[in-house]
Write a structure and sequence with these properties.
The longest helix is centred in the last third of the chain and has 20 residues, at 208-227. A hairpin with a 2-residue loop joins strand 2 and strand 3 (71-76). Strands 5-7-6-1-2-3-4-8 form an eight-stranded antiparallel β-sheet. The protein is an alpha+beta fold. Helices cover 24% and strands 21% of the residues.
């Protein structure tokens, strides 16, 4: 599932290639993936209502791409926008020619610059993603206010205050997009390892010093992944079709049974809050104050 680093890599690529271009809606093949502020995931139980072309930025000039957490907003010169939620398997691909045989393309746009025409395609085999039109900046802000602070820029003080009010364990807290937006299973496990925090540690028991260490670890992991193009386990691709490379540098995620890179203890894997969780039982003690 694309997490913050993957979405940020997509944002940077498309901002470089598409800002200043004219967007035209090419095809809307599935109306049920078009969501709203009231129904962000779209309508999955019955056919959706076809969105007006204007809502999907038909015949508009793209002036910015912005991100919060795992969500990406395409913003037009008149303030209209749409948010792309990639879900479990979503991709945004920028292609020189439209491939009618490419499966699971739900929406596509023509991207026209002074030099060339290309096609931007949103494809999502598992259909957990969606596209959410916003009429203006206020609607975009209203939707993003439902998310917690962005994991790449959150301050340690803000996160510490949120931790103190939570009864969740560390793994569950960091996965909660209303508490902190952008982290999924991969980067939660990696961040907790760097911070030396056991995933079952009650988050409210962490001291302010430990919370600062956690924030620094989160930023380090996210920035490192971005520098390597994100993580490709199955579906994620940069819009030009290249794969991410951070999966080759993971410290605990996907390494169950292998030796810890710090202490040579075998990495443990267990189910926690419904997610497969990897950690080092020695480096990540359950004691909340260990490692200070």
């Amino acid at each position: 599932m694309p997490e913050l680093p993957e979405v940020e890599c997509i944002r940077r690529f498309l901002a470089r290639e598409c800002v200043g271009s004219t967007l035209s809606l090419h095809q809307l093949n599935r109306t049920d993936i078009v969501g709203s502020l009231d129904s962000p995931r779209g309508e999955r139980k019955k056919p959706g209502v076809a969105a007006r072309k204007e809502a999907l930025l038909d015949q508009s000039t793209l002036v910015a791409l912005e991100r919060k957490g795992k969500q990406l907003a395409f913003i037009a010169s008149d303030g209209r926008s749409f948010i792309v939620r990639l879900g479990m398997s979503g991709q945004l691909l920028l292609m020189k020619s439209f491939d009618a045989n490419l499966a699971h393309v739900h929406v596509s746009w023509v991207v026209q610059t002074k030099r060339e025409k290309r096609y931007l395609c949103f494809r999502d085999p598992r259909r957990f993603g969606s596209v959410i039109p916003c009429k203006n900046r206020n609607e975009l802000s209203a939707h993003w206010q439902l998310l917690g602070p962005d994991a790449l820029s959150v301050s340690s003080r803000v996160l510490f205050e949120s931790m103190r009010q939570s009864k969740l364990v560390a793994k569950a807290f960091l996965l909660n997009q209303a508490r902190l937006s952008g982290l999924g299973n991969i980067y939660v496990d990696e961040s907790l390892f760097l911070a030396g925090i056991h995933p079952r540690t009650p988050i409210r028991e962490l001291s302010e010093t430990r919370s600062k260490k956690l924030v620094n670890s989160i930023r380090r992991v996210l920035r490192e992944s971005i520098s390597f193009g994100g993580t490709t386990l199955r579906d994620y691709l940069v819009p030009d079709g290249t794969r991410g490379r951070f999966q080759d540098r993971s410290r605990v995620y996907g390494r169950a049974g292998l030796l810890c890179t710090r202490c040579d203890t075998p990495i443990t894997r267990e189910q926690l809050v419904g997610r497969t969780t990897s950690f080092c039982p020695k480096c990540q003690s359950i004691s909340p104050e260990s490692g200070e």
